Amino acid sequence: MAQAVEEWYKQMPVITRWYLTAAVVTSIGCSLDIISPHNLYLNPILVVKQYQLWRLITNFLYFRKIDLDFLFHMFFLARYCKLLEENSFRGRTADFFYMLLFGASVLTGIVLVGGMIPYLSESFAKIIFLSNSLTFMMVYVWSKQNPFIHMSFLGLFNFTAAYLPWFLLGFSVLVGASAWVDLLGMIAGHAYYFLEDVYPRMTGRRPLRTPSFIKALFADEAVVVARPANVRFAPPPVEELHQD
Predict the structure, then answer these.
(1) Is residue 77 within 8 Å of residue 135, measured between CB atoms?
(2) CA 144 – CA 161 distance, rounded (Å)
């Protein structure tokens, strides 16, 4: 059993492995009182006035106390982060990292701006950890990129992946969780999907092109497509063979 878990862990793509490890270690550290959640949550005043910049990152790593809800979010983090990195972003680790960076920036900006809007500030003030929202963003992006995959929710409802975020949102409301957390993830996910997939098809421009300094951080391996052994390929045209 331990060996199987170790193999499963080693086979995870790099970003998924890093994020899952950081989330589990942070949450366990808080549950054992080794780390205090008070040093992790998003506090704009402490970030700006006392330069506690780490809060911009650590608020995405803590998933509250270790219970059934924690295991639920770890499952979704491991599953959909891994699916995105291995499929949609295969061979493009830098682009995947940039997607997470974009999502984290959008979520942080929404919370900061929402905290200054009357009638909404009270709701946004309660959102001090954005880890669940970032996980939900990944679920949303995956569902938009794989809309026709058939799924089942709790074995009771059958639907296509395009409706997965809405089923999860409804489930959160039913169990008494804040709908804002999931809605923020959907907003960030839709912003990425529109700017990365829809807008370029409309205009031919890609506003979310990954910066070169981020690409320099990752040495993406080329994706090799194996040629089937029993398939014969036609030789190149004669005119190509005689070109100088």
Answers:
(1) yes
(2) 8
Average pLDDT, the chain: 84
Domain ranges of the chain: 64-213
| Residue 65 DSSP one-character state | S
Render pLDDT for 178-223 as a digit per residue (tens, 0 to 9): 788 899 999 999 999 999 999 999 988 999 999 999 999 887 554 4
Report which residue type is found at 124: F
In this prediction, residue 97 carries a pLDDT of: 95
Q: Nearest CA to 115 among 128, 107, 106, 124?
A: 124
For residue 145, CA distances in Å to 15, 154, 211 come to 19, 22, 23
Please tell me the distance from the alpha carbon of residue 173 to that of residue 97, in angstroms, as a whole number: 30
Candidates 71, 183, 193; CA nearest to 130 is 183
AA letter at 227 = R
Which DSSP symbol is given to 199?
H
